Amino acid sequence: MKLSRLLMSVAVVMTLVAAHGPVRAGENPPMPGFDAAGSDAHAVQLADRTMVAMGGRAAWDAAHIIGWTIFKRTHVWDKWTGDYRLEADSTLVIMNINTTKGRVWEKGVEVTDAAKRDEVLHEGLSIWINDAYWLVMPYKLKDSGVTLHDRGEITTEDGRKADAVELTFHGVGDTPDNKYVVCIDRETGLVSQWSYFPKATDAEPRFTLPWNGWTAFGGIKLATGRGKTEVTGIRVSTTADPAAFTAP
What we know:
Blueprint: H1 41-53, H2 57-62, E1 65-70, E2 73-78, E3 83-88, E4 91-96, E5 102-106, E6 109-110, H3 114-136, E7 146-155, E8 161-169, E9 179-185, E10 191-197, E11 207-210, E12 212-217, E13 220-226, E14 229-230, E15 232-237
Antiparallel strand pairs: 1-2, 1-15, 2-3, 3-4, 4-5, 5-6, 7-8, 8-9, 9-10, 10-11, 12-13, 13-14
């Protein structure tokens, strides 16, 4: 009853709904619990710059439904309610990220055994944490539990100048010991590369990958390229899609 998995541990369980109400153009308020006191001011400014380059905070908050495919897994996520649909191999999961309640089908047959169902729902939540972060990480730089550090100018692997921002985490997600270094392109303001460190104390990353193929979807920009990995089937809607979360 295992879903096919290719998970890189990610530290942050992403906040689903902004808690501050509507924002004005150019604003990018932090989510509750963001470590403003421990973050470098310039790193925070860079997070705000890349938010503007991607379409702005108001456009991100207005994005209601996001769909995408990565690692041969297809997702539909209602960012406002937490409703979530995952299709992986012969498994279908329809659940709510907030409550972790839901239903599971294997080869078209619903799983009724509570223990097996809950096991797959738990794994589905971990997959959502991982795969959503691979898609929308740049929008989450000021999330709860995040601390941002300015790591100065860097030359990315494709030879472009960028500003490096280090993310560390506290008290959130599956693996809060992770660390990321995110490169924000000097010219475009968009994320152009990220490096993943399993431990915040690690000197060398587990991997470094580009973020490229930035494209507009429903008022916001998302990157489709991660080196040899591509994000496909991206759709962003500002309206609800209840049919996506009904039984097959």
